[in-house]
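Fig. S4 source data, part A: sequence.
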Amino acid sequence: MKLVYNTNDKPKFGQLIIFAFQQLLAIMAATVAVPMIVGNGMQPSAALFGAGVGTLVYVLFTKGKSPVFLGSSFAFLGSMPAAFAGAVSMEKGYAGLIIGAAFAGLVYVIIAAIVKFAGVKWVDKLMPKQVIGPTVAIIGLSLAGNAVGDLQKGSYMVETVSQAIENGAIVDVVGSAPAANPLIAIVCGLVTLAVTTLCSVYGKKGVRLVPFIIGIVSGYALAAIFTVIGISTGNDALRIINFDLFKDMGAFTVPEFTFLKGIKGFKEIDGAFIASLAAAYVPVAFVVFAEHIADHKNISSIIEKDLLKEPGLHRTLLGDGVGSMVGAFFGGCPNTTYGESVACVAITRNASVATIITTAILAMAISFVSPFVLFLNSIPSCVMGGVCMALYGFIAVSGLKMVQKVDLEDNKNLFVVSVILIAGIGGLVLDFGAIKITSIATALILGILMNIMLSKKKKA
C-alpha cells in the first residue's frame, strides 16, 4: 500500500493535532464503552487516560515502529466483574482490577520471553495466510452488527448513564438512549458514511488524510439540526443528540483513577481472591494473544514491514502486555491493540507513529477537560455507526486481501478458510465456567487445528 506518511514521518504540528484527533475519534466509542458496561463507578475519562498511557508504553517497547493505538479490551468484559464479585468493598474491587490486569500482562511477558528465545518462525508455520487472513476478516465482520445497531440509535451516552456511574451501578447503555426515530438516525449515519467516503476517494491530499473528522462533523451537524427542530416542536423522534449532557458543565475535572480508588483495598487482598482473579484473567490473555498476532499481521501488510520480525513479536507483546498493566492502573481496563486504529491508518494512509504518540497525549489531556469529553460523549451512536461501517468493513477487507494470496483451488486451504469464516461469523463461543473463549479466538483455534491436521497433504 502506498502511504502518504510512513511510520518514521512527522507531519507538521497543526496537521499532527488534526490527525491525532481523527485517530481519537476512531477509537473513542469502544474505549469508553468498556468501563460504562462494567459499571461499579468506573469512569470513561479514566479509561481514556489509561489508554493514552498504555499506548505510550507500547510505542516505547516497539521502538516507535508500530503505528497502533491501545484501547480498552472488550475481551476482558467477562473477567472484570470477578474483581467486584469477590470483593467486600469497592476499594478491594478496584485493587482487583489492577491485579487482574497484571496477571493478563504477565502472560504476555512470559510469551514474549519464549518468543525471544524460540524466534517467530513457529508463528508463521502455525498461523500462515490461510489462517490469519480469514481471522482478520471475521474481526471486522463480527463487528458488523455493532455498526448497524449503532446506525439506528441516537446518543449512546445520556443523562441516565452518568447518573448510574455516580451511583456505582451497572447500566444498560442501549436502553437509556433517547427514543429517536431509527430512520432519522440512519439518515444521519449514512450522511456521515457518504461524506467520509467522498472525502477519502475524491478529496485532495489534505482532505483524504482527515475523512473521518469531516464525516463525523457533517453527521453531527445534521443530527444537531434534527435535534433543535425536535426540541422546538416537542417531537422526541427528532432528538438525536442529548444536549442535556452539557448542563452544569465545569471547565476541568480530575478523573477518578483506579489506583486512587483501590489503594486502600490492597490491604484486604487474600490468596483466594488472587486465585479467582488469575482464573478470570489468565485464560482470556491467551485468547487475546491470538488476536494480537492477527492485528500485527494486518498492520504489517498495510505498512509493508513485518513487525513480527522488526521490532519483533517479543517487543510488540511486551508493549501490549506492559501497556495493558499500566493502562489498568489508571483506568481499570486492560488494553489491547485496536482494529479501528489499524483501519484508520489504512484508509487515511497515514502510518506516522508521531500521530499515534500525539493521539495518546491528546487522550490523556482531554480526560481532564470536561467540555471536550462531553462533546465526544455527545456524538450520537448513529454518526459513529456510519464511520464504523467503513472502519469495520476495512478490517474485513484487509483479511480478505490476505486470502487472495492463498491458493483456494487446494482443498486443504479451502477447508481451513471455510471453517474459520463460518465459526467466526456464526459466533461459536466456548464456555468453561469462568473461562469464555470468544468466537474470534475459537475460529482461530479451529483454523490452526484444521491446518495442522491437513499439513501433511502432499502437493499434487
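Fig. S4 source data, part B ends here. The longest helix spans residues 271-303.
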